[in-house]
Design brief:
The chain is an alpha/beta fold and about 180 residues long. It contains six helices and seven strands, in the order βαβαββαββαβαα. The longest helix has 19 residues, at about 40-60. The protein is elongated, with a radius of gyration of 16 Å.
Length: about 180
C-alpha cells in the first residue's frame, strides 16, 4: 500500500533532511500563528507548534502521513527566534557569541488514521567568539534570515559554531534518528 507523505513546512533544509528518509513526499506549508504563548516553555512551544502545523495540513490532506516541525533556539530565557531584521539578528548573534545555547525541535507525525506521535529533541550548540569581522561577513551572506538563532549550521553558519552536542539535524531543523523509527512502524 502506497501512503502519501506530506511535509508541513516550506523550509529547504527540512526538505533536504526528509529526503534522506522518505523517497517521495510533497510539501504543504501550514501557515499558522507561530508566536509563543505567555509563560510557555520553549520545549512546549516547539511541540505545540509542530502539532498545530501537522494537524492543519492533515485536515487539508486526508489520508496522508503528515510531518509537522518547529524549531526554537534559546539562551537561558532569551528566545533566539527567527527574524528578517538585521539589527535583531546581529544582537542575537552577539548574545550567542562564545556561549552554549539550546536548540529544541518539536516533531509531530499525524498518520492517515488520525493517530499522532510527537517528540522534542534538543541539542546544545557552542558558538565561537564572534569577531566583528566574522559577524559582519556572516550578516552580509543573508543566510541568517528566517533562521532560529539567526544562523544556519548546514550552510556558511557552520563557521560560527564550535561544537554541537546532540544530533546536528536537530539544529538544522528536523531530527531524523527517532523519525526513521516512527516511519518504519
Amino acid at each position: 500500500m502506497r501512503m502519501d507523505v506530506v511535509l508541513a513546512s516550506a523550509s529547504p533544509r527540512r526538505k533536504r533532511l526528509l529526503a534522506r528518509v522518505v523517497r517521495k513526499f510533497s510539501v504543504v506549508p501550514a501557515h499558522i500563528d507561530e508566536r509563543m504563548r505567555r509563560g510557555e516553555s520553549f520545549s512546549r512551544a516547539c511541540i505545540r507548534l509542530a502539532r498545530a502545523k501537522a494537524r492543519a495540513v492533515a485536515r487539508k490532506c486526508p489520508g496522508a502521513l503528515v510531518v509537522g516541525v518547529d524549531t526554537v533556539a534559546y539562551l537561558g530565557n532569551m528566545n533566539c527566534r527567527k527574524t528578517d531584521d538585521a539589527k535583531r539578528a546581529r544582537a542575537t548573534l552577539r548574545a550567542l557569541s562564545g556561549k552554549t545555547h539550546t536548540v529544541a525541535t518539536g516533531v509531530c507525525v499525524v498518520f492517515p488514521d488520525g493517530r499522532e506521535v510527537s517528540y522534542v529533541e534538543r541539542a546544545r550548540v557552542r558558538m565561537r567568539r564572534l569577531t566583528p569581522e566574522l559577524l559582519e561577513w556572516y550578516m552580509k551572506t543573508g543566510e541568517w534570515k528566517g533562521r532560529a538563532g539567526s544562523y544556519d549550521v548546514s550552510g556558511k553558519g557552520r563557521r560560527l559554531v564550535e561544537k554541537i552536542t546532540g544530533e546536528k539535524e536537530t539544529v538544522v531543523g528536523l531530527p531524523l534518528l527517532r523519525l526513521k523509527l516512527i516511519l518504519k512502524k
